[in-house]
Design brief:
Elements (H helix, E strand, L loop, with lengths): L1 H14 L6 E10 L2 E10 L5 H15 L7 H6 L4 E2 L2 H16 L9 H6 L12 H8 L7 E4 L2 E4 L11 H15 L5 E5 L2 E5 L9 E5 L11 E6 L4 E6 L4 E3 L6 E3 L14 E8 L2 H23 L6 E7 L5 E5 L9
Antiparallel strand pairs: 1-2, 2-6, 3-5, 4-5, 6-7, 7-10, 8-9, 10-13, 11-12, 13-14, 14-15
Helix pairs in contact: 2-7, 4-8, 7-8
């Protein structure tokens, strides 16, 4: 009886001991050819770094073209592959965005991206004849999906680069919510999503880079936003380009899958806020293809998106266009 009372008292003392301190836990590293930073408010004895690394590894093994034996690499080698549910979710969203944007977003644009010198292979000597020969391999009709089986028409390639990082952000957010983490900011490769408050009890603030080639640390941000429970992505042509040494013409890394040529546009950057980071990621890319006027017209029927566009006018000066109520988030 005395022994039982002693252990009962010991258990009570443990239970009544000091609670762990509330802190901002930050997990950082490299993944998907870029960096990530996951910030969440939790107790000091909690660290989900290893679980987050496992999620990032899983996505790489499923959707990274840089991993030779990933699901997507096997498909690009023309194997018929049984894919996982996450791969299927990204593929189905890619079909949807392609349809809604009338082909401005297309995961099969890879052969053209490579030809123009923005992929893993060397740049080709590109002219209209080369573009025409490659266009036969571009289009979502080249991708076949039968349940969990996915395969390609010969010559086609798929690349989730403009959508998978956003989906990865969403996966990590869902994981954190299963752990009852309600206050977080998740960023992978520049795509991000927030929920709740930071450690100081304020809404998370996000800086959007100015669309310029070099980062000016003293005046880096075009705009700073307060973002709560939304996904955000920014796409632009201001850092990824090459210049023809003969003509001096600048070629942007955004390739229009409808024409096969780099986009010639005065739209410098598109920032998209959506319910998920995956949607924000995909539509930011699509808007850079659609250009300023095409994007504005598209958004007339999509009040679910909040968008901030930076473009150059006929004088070469920067101007801004934003959807209604976007300014309410600006700090």
């Amino acid at each position: 009886m005395k022994q039982l009372s002693f252990f009962a008292l010991f258990a009570m003392l443990i239970a009544c001991g000091p609670e762990p301190e509330t802190i901002l836990r930050v997990n950082t590293g490299r993944a998907q050819g870029s960096t990530y930073m996951i910030s969440y408010v939790t107790s000091s004895d909690v660290d989900y770094g290893s679980q987050i690394d496992s999620i990032l590894l899983f996505v790489d093994m499923s959707m990274s073209t840089w991993v030779p034996h990933s699901k997507i690499s096997q498909i690009n080698n023309y194997d018929t592959v049984l894919v996982d549910s996450h791969f299927n979710a990204v593929l189905h969203k890619a079909y949807q965005v392609n349809n809604f944007t009338q082909g401005a977003f297309d995961i099969t644009v890879g052969p053209l991206v490579n030809a123009w010198g923005f992929g893993p292979t060397g740049k080709m000597a590109v002219d209209s004849a080369v573009v025409d020969s490659l266009m036969q391999f571009v289009g979502m009709s080249k991708v076949y999906s039968r349940g969990d089986l996915v395969f390609l028409e010969k010559g086609a390639k798929i690349d989730f680069n403009a959508i998978a990082q956003g989906y990865t952000v969403d996966m990590i957010c869902e994981f954190l919510q299963t752990k009852d983490i309600d206050n977080y900011m998740v960023e992978v490769g520049g795509e991000l999503r927030t929920r709740g408050k930071n450690l100081k009890g304020n809404t998370w603030t996000i800086g959007i880079d100015k669309p310029q080639e070099q980062i000016d640390e003293e005046a880096r941000f075009q705009v700073v936003l307060a973002l709560d429970n939304k996904g955000l992505a920014t796409s632009g042509n201001y850092r990824k380009f090459w210049v023809d040494e003969t003509t001096g013409q600048k070629f942007a890394h955004t390739i229009d899958p409808r024409t096969g040529f780099p986009v010639l546009s005065n739209l410098l950057s598109a920032t998209v806020i959506a319910e998920t980071a995956m949607e924000a990621d995909a539509y930011a890319t699509a808007f850079m293809v659609m250009g300023l006027e095409g994007t504005k017209k598209f958004l007339e029927n999509r009040p679910d998106f909040q968008v901030y566009l930076v473009y150059s006018n006929y004088k070469g000066d920067w101007e801004v266009w934003m959807t209604p109520d976007f300014d309410k988030m600006i700090q």
